Amino acid sequence: MTTRLTGSAIAVALTLGLAAAAAAQAPKAGEVSRVEGTVAVARPATPDGAPLKRKDNIFVRDLVTTGELSKAQLLLGGKATVTMREQSALRITEVPGVSTVEITGGMLKLVVAKDRMKAGERIDVKTPNAITAVRGTTIVTELVKAPSGPVTRLTVLDGFVDITPLNPATGAPLGPPVRVNMLQQTTVTGAGAPTPPQPVTRNDAVRLDATFAFKLNPTTASDDVLKRQVEQAATDAAKLPPGSAPGKLPGGGDTVPNVSGDDIRSRTNPIAPPQRPSGQGRSISPGGG
Question: What is the value of pTM for the model shown?
Fold first, then answer.
């Protein structure tokens, strides 16, 4: 009798333990569709960083970073595609109806399929000093650090969006949203308001879009570069508060991991922040994903 009770207790304990582990698992946010060079992930519940490869899952609150001369493309729930350029970092959080892509350094392109979004759904792109509401469009967001504070540059390649300036210290909105239409660009510096949207030529837009293209022959990273990237991902994981609540909308006091573009750039050879493209190029439609 005692043996049977002990065995039952162990079985129940194991079942409860597995259930607790499953409950603790963060929801899936998407998966990796393409990788070029070195890409790593850091998770709040896991102290060790890990390299990412094609078809790996991405979970809510994962911190994804790209190394030097590297790119990553993530599929979010079959509704959006995020392409990260080199030396960039992002984290995905969720609240009902809203997925938030928090960029803490670098540059990304977001393509949202409007016909796959349900009524009331949207995807926000958040930087320390601005948040952009996206419901079905193609945008490029760049975040750099400057003496005057974070600088967010938003370029709309297709559709239109609304961008709201945020207090870099508290995350609270600082003013009304500003509408930015197709082939327009605005910049938010520090705690300032967005600049009046300026036109972007189609050739400039095409050149900007082309910087997110993957090579036909993917870059193969050396073991040493990959090791450094994974080790840094472990350091990034330590900067995420363990067990913290999911991301909140502006004014909710969300805690963003303290991993900046400068942190990422310092891991490898310095690369100058990307500038707005100029010059002539082929006249094709940007934002093709």
Answer: 0.70
